[in-house]
Structures are given as structure tokens and as C-alpha cells.
Design goal:
Layout: H1 12-22, E1 25-26, H2 35-45, H3 59-71, E2 76-80, H4 83-98, E3 102-105, H5 110-113, H6 118-121, E4 126-129, H7 139-145, E5 152-156, H8 169-181, E6 185-190, H9 196-200, H10 204-208, E7 213-217, E8 228-232, H11 234-246, H12 255-268, H13 272-286, E9 292-295, E10 303-308, H14 312-326, E11 328-329, E12 336-337, E13 342-347, H15 357-371
Helix pairs in contact: 1-14, 4-11
Length: about 375
């Protein structure tokens, strides 16, 4: 594992993160607001006559669930506190109906990497990995995982751990048709589904139509506080509501999350095509410098991974100083550091709109000159 060459009270990486957070202007993510301002914005967005939800019922939550169900082209929806709750619930339901505990999912799935195997430990499911952790799953990968009777297959659109890549539309339709022919349910990890319509030139409902159940998140691209929605047919969602209670997710009230999700959907979703175009532009500019290489080379969505070809200590120290001097952050803090490289993830939100492309291009040139 990488260790800074000179240890200090605050590591070089910690200093980089602190400098990034303190910057006034950023290329990545959405604009940031204070907690007080966020809550005030939500209060202003709510009508005087609106009443909070109570244990999953009431017009506020039911209207929003219906709105999202219609947007995604499904019969019904249920709001949940988190995707970590929503996704294994979906898979458990399909397992119960198929009378088999086997499910298939990519090795880079959030369920595999970030949830401490909760789908196995808490929900009694047995996972079979499909494909390799750095590649999109193929139809042959799905077929290879079906040696045991499968209840469901989880596919992630887009796949975060490989830079927001997507299968082609024809591949996705082919995988869905095969699953249906073999009585295997197809579930979408759609945490970042909002990024997909511009890439496919399809509506959200068209994309969701090839899946039996879909989970979406409201804080990653839409700027919500927390919360998720699970959509599917009415019978499926009826079962999901029972599981929501079993898992302690039917909280007395969820209205702060609901209001934030509703506003996020309203204000951020229309801008997703523009964000993808900005990501394409920024990646192209980064790739003009030998210091950088994006993955994929041409982003498919408004997110991508970035390799920084430099000595980590030198790069992080110089970059921290440049950010501190300029109050501008161009590169998100690395999630992995090697002996001679850093890896970062960049998701383009509305923060990039604080400056013009010409201004960002000049700042990027200044940054590269300072860290080289």
C-alpha cells in the first residue's frame, strides 16, 4: 500500500482533500450549500398546505412515488431511506418467487464492494459474479452464471467502478430477452440512471422497460440529502413495502428526504444532457496532456475515471498549493494511489457552470504547469 514519503500530522492526501473542499470553484459535482441554506431552500420549495408523510403514507410521499413510477415507466414505486436497503429487498423478493437463493451480479457491484456482504448475511442470498471487475458483463457472462438456477441478475447502469461505462443498447436488449426467456428477473442498480438517457438517446421509461425492477438514488446526481426509490409492478412493490417494514425502513416521517428528492429531480434532471457534453469536453482537454488519461478515453456519461501519471507526493503537494492559491479545484481527490500514479473519479455536475470553458481551459493549463 502507498505510504507518503514524509509523514506529518496531516497526511499529504488529507491536505489535498481539505484544499479541494475549501475551493470556491470546482469542475466536479454539484454546487454546495450550507446546511442552513439547504434546509431553507427546501422550506421555500414546500407549499403551506402540504403535510408531512406518516409511516409511508400521505399525499406528499404517495404523489412523489407515483411521479417517479410514471417517469420510469413502471406501475408502482416505494420510497426507501437507502439503496443499501432497496436493492437486496428487490433481490430477496425475486428469490422468494423463484424458490432459489441464487442471484448474479458484477464483482464491482456496490453490493459486493461496499455493503459487507449484507445481501448474503442479512437476506440469505447467494451471489454469483458475472464477468470481470474491469469489464462490462456480456451475454456469455450471464449464461455462464446460470449453471445454478438463478432468481435474478443485477446490472448496473452506468457502471461506476469502470468510469460510467454502459453496454450498447442492442447488447442490453439482448441480455434482457435472454433473461426473460429463461425466467430470470433483471434488476437495475440505477443509482446513476439519470446519466443514461443522453448516452442511449432513450427516455428513462424506455431504458427501464428492459428491467423487471429498478432502484434509483436521489443524492448522487440530483443533489438530494439521501433516499432511494424502488419501482416495479404493483405486486412487486406491495411485497417491497412489507420488506421495508421488516428492515426498519418505514420511518415515522421521511419528508426532508422527499422534499430534497423532489427538488433535485425538478432542477437537476433537465441538465443531464448538458453535463454529459461538459464531461466530454473536459475529458478531451485532460487527455491533451501526457499527465492525464481518462477511462474511458471518451466518456459515455457525465462521469469518468482519471489516471494521473506522476509521483504521488510531488503531484499532491504541488496540486494542494495551487488549489490553495487559486481557490479552484480541477481534480477530485484520488481514491487510489500507486507508486507512480493516482486514480481519481470525476462526475460533472452544475458546479462547472460557474466558469466558461475558456476559463477552465486556461486554469487547466496553469494547473498542469504548476504540478509538472
Amino acid at each position: 500500500m502507498y505510504q507518503p514519503k514524509q509523514e506529518s500530522k496531516h497526511s499529504i492526501l488529507h491536505n489535498y482533500r481539505s484544499a479541494f473542499t475549501a475551493c470556491t470553484y470546482k469542475t466536479a459535482r454539484n454546487l454546495e450549500y450550507s446546511m442552513k441554506q439547504r434546509l431553507q431552500n427546501l422550506a421555500d420549495a414546500s407549499a403551506v398546505e402540504e403535510l408531512n408523510d406518516v409511516y409511508g403514507s400521505g399525499e406528499l410521499i404517495e404523489n412523489f412515488e407515483n411521479e417517479v413510477a410514471e417517469l420510469l415507466g413502471k406501475e408502482s414505486a416505494v420510497f426507501m431511506p437507502s439503496g443499501t436497503m432497496a436493492q437486496p429487498i428487490a433481490l430477496r423478493i425475486w428469490a422468494d418467487r423463484a424458490k432459489t437463493n441464487y442471484i448474479a451480479l458484477p464483482p464491482s457491484s456496490h453490493l459486493n464492494l461496499h455493503e459487507h456482504n449484507s445481501y448474503q448475511v442479512l437476506y440469505g442470498l447467494k451471489g454469483i459474479n458475472i464477468g470481470e471487475d474491469h469489464l462490462l458483463p456480456t451475454l456469455d457472462d450471464l449464461k455462464g452464471a446460470a449453471c445454478d438456477p438463478l432468481a435474478a441478475i443485477l446490472l448496473e447502469l452506468p457502471m461506476r467502478e469502470i468510469g460510467g461505462q454502459l453496454p450498447s443498447w442492442s447488447e442490453l436488449v439482448e441480455q434482457s430477452a435472454w433473461a426473460k426467456q429463461n425466467n430470470i428477473k433483471l434488476h437495475m442498480d440505477g443509482a446513476r440512471l439519470w446519466q443514461c438517457p443522453p448516452a442511449y438517446n432513450k427516455s428513462l421509461a424506455q431504458i427501464c422497460s428492459v428491467f423487471d425492477s429498478v432502484y434509483v438514488s436521489f443524492y448522487k446526481d440530483l443533489g438530494g440529502i439521501a433516499g432511494a426509490i424502488l419501482v416495479g409492478d404493483k405486486d412487486f412493490i406491495s411485497s417491497a413495502k412489507v420488506w421495508k417494514k421488516r428492515c426498519g425502513g418505514n420511518l415515522h416521517a421521511l419528508y426532508p428526504y422527499l422534499l430534497a428528492a423532489r427538488e433535485g429531480l425538478k432542477t437537476n434532471l433537465p441538465d443531464m444532457p448538458k453535463r454529459r457534453n461538459n464531461a466530454l469536453w473536459f475529458a478531451q482537454k485532460l487527455n491533451t496532456y501526457p499527465l492525464f488519461q481518462t477511462w474511458p478515453l471518451v466518456p459515455q456519461t457525465n462521469m469518468f475515471r482519471l489516471r494521473i501519471n506522476a509521483d504521488p507526493d510531488t503531484f499532491l503537494s504541488k496540486a494542494t498549493q495551487w488549489m490553495t492559491d487559486n481557490k479552484v479545484a480541477l481534480i477530485t481527490a484520488p481514491y487510489k494511489i500507486g507508486e507512480d500514479y493516482c486514480l481519481s473519479e470525476i462526475t460533472i455536475g452544475n458546479a462547472v457552470e460557474q466558469k466558461t470553458q475558456q476559463q477552465w481551459e486556461a486554469l487547466l493549463a496553469s494547473f498542469v504547469d504548476a504540478v509538472s
